[in-house]
């Protein structure tokens, strides 16, 4: 992965549990990020980061509707955001009614990212570290910005991504760009967190595989805790067609999410292959850590 050093800044942004803003010391390194998508930079050379390998419950998702919707805010969404900002080093964070940050102490904190690409929206997909970058070489010394690093499991364990997953505040959501060894370790961490059900954990209330009924959009926004990838599909579906799930399999087929599962060599297209609909209830028949999505 490409190492970039810089600082995290949140003033004027709406950070959540898996998205935060980062400004490199040398913005020119954005040009070195591999992959088909370019990092979208602001006027100060900063960019939005998407935390690799995890997905926090939504605090403001727009999708097909004119207004933002969210997952239950007091059942994980705000806890993940607050823990991420605290772990990075921000205190006394003040937000307006629309959750835009108006003040923080300090205004920025130093850190580094490890990245292998950007997503279709121009966000850099990264592992987030704080303080000095990891040490490499013999004798070991902190790596320099712009270096290409073979990321180890030990390095993964020093990141915000792994920290949030360990506490059970976020779901795993893997894409094929993330190294297999790192995915395996994050999957094991997920299983431990699911069993522990720590305070504020999404696993305390998760209904993704146990199943649930949708009576209205409010079922998704105020009551049910589930994998954000599936929430986004369901929220759009309900806003377009209402709460009846009769056409959900066809809708999921049209969304054409492509992914791999452990026991099949070929990729699968469409979440309808892993989401069961029975009468008015839905459930995923595989744990989310089994799925490896293809980055578009």
Structure description:
With 296 residues, this protein is an alpha+beta fold. It has two domains: 2-196, OB fold (Dihydrolipoamide Acetyltransferase, E2P); 206-293, no CATH class. The chain is built from seven helices and 18 strands. The chain has helices spanning 77-88, 153-156, 160-166, 180-196, 217-223, 228-241, 248-255, and strands at residues 2-9, 19-24, 47-51, 54-55, 91-95, 101-105, 108-118, 124-130, 135-136, 141-142, 171-172, 174-175, 212-213, 258-260, 268-269, 275-278, 281-284, 292-293. The strands form six sheets. The protein has a five-stranded mixed beta barrel. A four-stranded mixed beta sheet has the order 12-18-14-15, with no helix packed on it. It is globular and about 60 Å long. The two termini are 19 Å apart. The model has no long low-confidence stretch (mean pLDDT 95).
Overall helicity: 10-25%
How many structural domains are formed by the residues? 2
Reported by name, the CATH topology of the largest domain is OB fold (Dihydrolipoamide Acetyltransferase, E2P)
Taking pLDDT < 50 over at least 5 consecutive residues as the criterion, the unreliable ranges are none
Task: Report the biggest beta sheet as strand number plus sense, adding barrel if it closes.
Answer: 5 strands, mixed, barrel
CATH level-two architecture of the largest domain: Beta Barrel
- Mean pLDDT, to the nearest integer, reads 95
Query: What spatial order of strands do you see in the largest sheet?
Result: 1-2-3-8-7
Distance between the termini: 19 Å
Number of helices: 7
Percent of residues in beta strands: 25-35%
- Going by helix content, strand content and strand pairing, the class is alpha+beta
What's the CATH class label of the largest domain? Mainly Beta
Rounded radius of gyration (Å) = 19 Å
What is the number of strand segments? 18
Name the shape in a single word.
globular
What order do the helices and strands follow? Answer: EEEEHEEEEEEHHEEHEHHHEEEEE
